[in-house]
Specification:
Layout (H helix, E strand, L loop, with lengths): L1 H18 L4 H8 L3 H9 L6 H10 L12 H12 L6 H9 L3 H14 L8
Helix pairs in contact: 1-3, 2-3
């Protein structure tokens, strides 16, 4: 599956680069890699690290999930999450929430209340 995803991501990268009229060299310079590395990304030979993916998304002016669109595994998991069948790691979410400042917790709570008016208080 990993190789399959690398090829998928490489195709999405190439499509976007070409749509913007950019060379591999220009993209490479923007994210501080060689043009050969961009070639390897586009061919699916090399995987793209999370930081490079973020840099590419920013430079190419697309959201990170652009690279996952139309990938069968992503679509399957997306459908499951929309159906409510995806496991949620509540311990991780609780840990993240505890690390927020009081101001961030207030903003988060307000955001939840706006998206779901049934929520009255988050502890």
């Amino acid at each position: 599956m990993e190789d399959n995803f690398n090829k998928h991501l490489g195709n999405k990268l190439k499509l976007r680069r070409l749509a913007l009229g950019l060379t591999q060299t220009k993209v490479a310079r923007a994210i501080n890699v060689t043009f050969q590395q961009i070639q390897k990304y586009e061919k699916g030979t090399n995987g793209v690290s999370s930081i490079r993916l973020l840099q590419l998304a920013n430079y190419l002016k697309v959201p990170v999930n652009y690279f996952f669109e139309d990938f069968s595994e992503y679509l399957t998991n997306l459908e499951k999450s929309q159906e409510g069948h995806m496991n949620v790691n509540y311990n991780f979410l609780t840990k993240l929430y505890k690390e927020l400042s009081n101001d961030q917790k207030i903003k988060f709570t307000k955001s939840l209340q706006l998206s779901n008016p049934g929520i009255t208080k988050v502890s």
